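[Meeting: bench + compute handoff]

Bench side (C.D.) handed over the final construct sequence. Compute side (W.E.) agreed to return the predicted structure before the next meeting so the bench team could plan truncations. Sequence as handed over:
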Amino acid sequence: MATLRDIRRRIGSVGNTMQITNAMKMVSTAKLNRAQTAVRAAQPYAEVLRQMVTSISAGLTGDDHPLLTRREGGKTLVVLFTSDRGLCGAFNANLNKLLLRQLMGNAQMTDPELIVFGRQGNEFFRRRGYTIRQSILNAVEAEKAGHIRKVLSASREQFIAGDVGRVFLAYNHFNSAINQEPRVVQLLPIEPPAAAEGEPAAAASRDQRETLFEPSREAVLDQLLPNYLENQCFLAHLNTEAGEHGARMVSMDGATRNAGEMIKRLTLQMNKARQAAITKELIEIVNGAQAL
């Protein structure tokens, strides 16, 4: 049975842990507010860009632009966004498991190689024997934009050259602090978003015929499609940042409440043990007095 000293020591240890988890919750709350603002600020531009790609790329083929070229077989490149640190619940595990199921069960993902942002995804897939082409770990915020541009530029060139057949993007979409949705979406070849949303192909083709390009359709596509890809990756990064802070805030809030409940139980146990010790001493005193 634990002694009073052991219980007091345990209460102190849990109390220190509760202070740490509460501080982490407050830090994540502050970071979440900034990350949420960044996601909301990026949404209008992303939506307009998506609509432009929907309108212009409808009815086009690989002959119109190399980023639209569909290939059978070949290597699959996956750009994965996870966090560097843990203590954020199932935020990383849900995405890693979803991507693992896709890699094992999707016939389109042949001969996969990964480019991983974040230590959690890197360790998960390295332990399972997947080829990690590049890992970007513990990068500061100011450097991440440059890393994303370099990765996307290299992936685009490899796709155009035919070294890579498909490029996928895996990330957690931020819905709210308590809801992050793991997603695996195709980046290359670019597919018109309208097709994925079920919009009528005939209407899209009619809009394409009525569109006038200045200076030319090729020049517009050369500027628009790379910007669309870059925007998709940056939006995935922003969603991952916001989702990580939201998941950690919720996780640390739960840990803080659990620590408080544990302290209450340990305090009750300590009071009972102290009362038992006092009762035992009184009984010994009474028995000694009666013996005299």
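W.E. noted at the follow-up: The CA atoms of residues 255 and 261 lie 10 Å apart. C.D. will use this when planning the next construct.
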